[in-house]
């Protein structure tokens, strides 16, 4: 791997723009650097990793600190003997002071600092290094973190745990703890771990286990944690120790499984070993240990809640392990919510609901382990049957789509509660057909859709939402810029139709801006980024019909969708709302509504009906043919084009290619005019998450799918009632008073 100087790296990475494919010449890309960091496995790489830990790129910093901490833990008995540990501690202290607002990075630095301080203590105990002693004496007491214990979280437990360990170590050094006793223990431990033959030999295993137990006996809190980590990691890594689970049981039962330090160390080490284990033999010991530790939580007296948070967080990392045996063991523990655990074979026809937040946390941890350097939001956006995680990676902004998992059955993939799994499979096929080339300027690029991963997901590029761009650029774009945006939308849907895909969810919220510029409209690139409802019809499918207007027209696919499938109420075609029929022509209606919305810088297409409920708006459009309003500031050619598309009879609508030709004629006529496109519309702009999606029921009422929108609608209705009650209250009160006087 090519070595890269830190200054050159900072300069190059600082000049890269987010949202684009990040490729640095001479193989100096972020992806290469992530792999370079992963290959640093020797204690000689500590200073290099510290250099990366000071990098301005937050993803580099996190990944470097994570790798450095693992390196020190794995090679601790070698690391503590290194010279100039005081310089290393100084650099780690600088990291702690420069973490910024990122809480996760703060926790990671505290853990790293704890292990460096433990190494210094070991060095002082064995070598009696006066320089190190003097260095630690100059250290001021550590500042306690501000923690809220009203709701115990893993973050608060983690932060408090490592703060207590660091404070304890610093106090012992500054108070001149008798180092000789620890020195003897360290030497005994090194001698026993360097020669594992005693543990491998069944006849000598009991005696060797007792010797290790003596090392752990009467150790103080921080050293019990450090020694437990070292011993457990060594035993897990050695494949020749028979009955290793019995060794662990005997070894740590005397020091107490109910001791938080021992519990934390064993849980952490077993989880880390399992994450790197892909065979039954390697995973068996750790899996049995974690199951036993889960059962031990109930025996904690003082720190029961803390122990539960520790093991829950670690087991969450294993919920989507490649080995089915691991998943079948871990998932019921995590998702049973206190009820008796049901294994995969025992589920049968039962449906066991699961904690959604727990599943989402596990998916986030899984993604961060699968993609090096991925930094994603805490909680995903929710759609009909998928979760959408958004974040940043070395290749730019990304959104990762997962099949929604609502029950234990969905996660274990036994008997799914609905057809989400089949629908997500169809969606993945659509995305692969449209996005697989990674070079299309019409739709987002596909960064990955692994077929053999569990769970199934696909990752596509992300960017600035088109609606956000329109709102920030209101009355600032030229007419040429606006027509370029409309042209991109038409080209994207035309691209779908050329690949026989019916999209069904075309709104301004379905597009992103991947690049912008000042001066030339060619710098604006709009891409289609949402494919949730897209279908890829094929001959032989039972719900597909091929119809035509007359013998001169080509056949086009049309199918009937699910009656309760949520679609965009203000943008969907009449035949889709009333009869759930979808075709290229229903897409064309949605294109026209989207074009009109974009021409208003991101407002509802039938904004003049905003005073009505969504059900009444749909009724006016579908049954009474209410047209989009003709506004004086709209270009006549563009308005006429949109109005000509919005025909209630599907076959009378203009085809995408013809719409594009008309738009190009208009664009050519205004190409040399840089006149600013200004609208004067008093209605409020719309947000993507508040585009109403639902279905018409048998009573003609539009049932909104999103709970967030239902709550928002209820708030608006309550406000409407209060306002009107306040308006009429004086009148009602007057009549009531007159009646009383008259009586």
Molecular structure report:
This protein is of the alpha+beta class. It has five domains: 1-14 and 27-177, no CATH class; 180-342, Serine Threonine Protein Phosphatase 5, Tetratricopeptide repeat; 374-461, Phosphorylase Kinase, domain 1 (2-Layer Sandwich); 464-705, Transferase(Phosphotransferase) domain 1 (Transferase(Phosphotransferase), domain 1), CATH 1.10.510; 707-743. 53% of the residues lie in helices and 8% in strands. The protein contains 30 helices and 15 strands. Strands 1, 2, 3, 4, 5 and 6 form a six-stranded antiparallel beta sheet that branches. Strands 7-8-9 form a three-stranded antiparallel beta sheet. The longest helix has 36 residues, at 707-742. The radius of gyration is 32 Å and the shape is elongated.
Question: What are the SSEs and their pairings?
Answer:
Layout: H1 6-14, H2 30-38, H3 46-53, H4 58-74, H5 76-79, H6 85-97, H7 103-127, H8 130-137, H9 154-174, H10 179-194, H11 197-200, H12 202-216, H13 221-237, H14 244-253, H15 260-275, H16 280-296, H17 304-316, H18 324-335, H19 344-347, H20 356-370, E1 375-376, E2 381-382, E3 386-393, E4 396-403, H21 408-412, H22 420-435, E5 446-448, E6 457-461, E7 464-465, H23 466-472, H24 479-498, E8 511-515, E9 525-528, E10 544-547, E11 556-560, E12 567-568, H25 574-579, E13 581-583, H26 584-599, H27 614-624, H28 636-645, H29 656-669, E14 693-696, E15 702-704, H30 707-742
Antiparallel strand pairs: 1-3, 2-3, 3-4, 4-6, 5-6, 7-8, 8-9, 10-11, 11-13, 12-14, 14-15
């Amino acid at each position: 791997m090519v070595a890269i100087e830190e200054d050159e790296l900072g300069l190059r990475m600082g000049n890269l723009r987010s949202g684009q494919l990040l490729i640095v010449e001479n193989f100096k890309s972020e992806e290469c650097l992530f792999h370079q960091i992963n290959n640093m496995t020797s204690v000689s790489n500590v200073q290099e990793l510290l250099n990366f830990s000071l990098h301005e790129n937050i993803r580099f910093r996190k990944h470097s600190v994570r790798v450095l901490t693992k390196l020190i833990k794995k090679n601790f008995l070698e690391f503590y003997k290194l010279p100039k540990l005081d310089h290393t501690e100084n650099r780690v202290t600088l990291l702690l002071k420069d973490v910024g607002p990122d809480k996760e990075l703060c926790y990671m630095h505290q853990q790293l600092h704890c292990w460096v301080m433990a190494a210094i203590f070991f060095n002082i105990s064995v070598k009696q290094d006066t320089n190190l002693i003097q260095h630690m004496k100059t250290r001021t007491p550590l500042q306690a973190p501000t923690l809220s214990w009203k709701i115990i979280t893993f973050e608060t437990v983690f932060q408090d745990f490592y703060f207590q360990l660091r404070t304890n170590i610093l106090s012992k050094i500054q108070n001149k703890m008798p180092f000789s006793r620890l020195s003897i223990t360290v030497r005994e431990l090194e001698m026993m771990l360097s020669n594992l033959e005693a543990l491998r030999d069944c006849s000598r295993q009991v005696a060797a286990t007792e010797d290790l137990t003596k090392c752990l006996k009467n150790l103080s809190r921080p050293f019990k944690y450090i020694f437990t980590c070292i011993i457990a990691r060594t035993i897990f890594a050695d494949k020749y120790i028979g009955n290793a689970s019995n060794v662990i049981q005997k070894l740590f039962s005397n020091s107490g499984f109910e001791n938080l330090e021992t519990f934390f160390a064993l849980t952490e080490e077993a989880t880390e070993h399992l994450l790197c284990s892909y065979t039954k033999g390697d995973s068996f010991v750790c899996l049995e240990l974690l199951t036993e530790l889960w059962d031990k939580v109930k025996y904690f007296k003082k720190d029961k809640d803390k122990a539960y948070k520790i093991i829950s967080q670690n087991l969450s990392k294993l919920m989507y392990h490649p080995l089915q045996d691991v998943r079948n063991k871990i998932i019921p523990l995590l998702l049973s919510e206190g009820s008796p655990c049901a294994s995969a074979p025992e589920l049968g026809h039962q449906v066991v609901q699961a904690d959604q937040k727990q599943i989402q946390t596990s998916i986030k941890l899984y993604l961060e382990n699968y993609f090096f350097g991925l930094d994603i939001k805490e909680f995903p956006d929710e759609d009909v049957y998928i979760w959408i995680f958004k974040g940043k990676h070395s290749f730019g902004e990304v959104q990762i789509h997962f099949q929604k998992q609502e029950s234990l059955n969905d996660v274990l993939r036994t008997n799914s509660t609905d057809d989400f799994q089949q629908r997500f499979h169809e969606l993945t096929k659509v995305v692969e057909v449209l996005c697989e080339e990674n070079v299309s300027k019409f739709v987002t690029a596909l960064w990955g859709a692994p077929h053999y991963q569990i769970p199934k997901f696909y990752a596509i590029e992300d960017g600035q939402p088109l609606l956000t761009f329109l709102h920030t650029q209101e009355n600032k774009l030229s007419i040429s810029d606006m027509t370029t945006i409309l042209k991109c939308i038409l080209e994207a849907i035309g691209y779908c139709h050329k690949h026989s895909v019916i999209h069904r969810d075309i709104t301004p919220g379905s597009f992103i801006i991947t690049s912008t510029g000042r001066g030339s409209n060619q710098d604006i690139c709009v891409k289609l980024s949402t494919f949730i409802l897209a279908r890829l019809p094929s001959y032989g499918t039972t719900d597909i019909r091929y119809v035509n207007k007359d013998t001169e027209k080509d056949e086009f696919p049309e199918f009937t969708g699910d009656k309760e499938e949520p679609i965009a109420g203000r943008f969907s075609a009449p035949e889709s709302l009333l009869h759930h029929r979808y075709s290229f022509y229903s897409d064309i209606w949605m294109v026209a509504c989207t074009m009109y919305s974009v021409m208003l810088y991101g407002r509802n297409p039938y904004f003049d009906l905003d005073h009505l409920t969504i059900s009444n708006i749909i009724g006016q459009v579908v049954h009474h043919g209410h047209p989009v309003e003709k506004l004086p500031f709209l270009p006549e050619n563009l308005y006429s084009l949109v109005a000509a598309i919005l025909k209630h009879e599907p076959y009378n609508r203009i085809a995408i290619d013809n719409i594009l030709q008309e738009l190009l004629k208009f664009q050519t006529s205004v190409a040399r005019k840089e006149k600013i496109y200004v609208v004067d519309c008093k209605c409020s702009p719309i947000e993507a998450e508040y585009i109403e999606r639902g279905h018409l029921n048998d009573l003609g009422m539009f049932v909104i799918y999103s709970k967030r929108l239902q709550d928002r609608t209820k708030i608006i209705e309550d406000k409407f009632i209060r306002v009107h009650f306040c308006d009429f209250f004086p009148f009602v009160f007057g009549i009531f008073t007159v009646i009383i006087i008259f009586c």
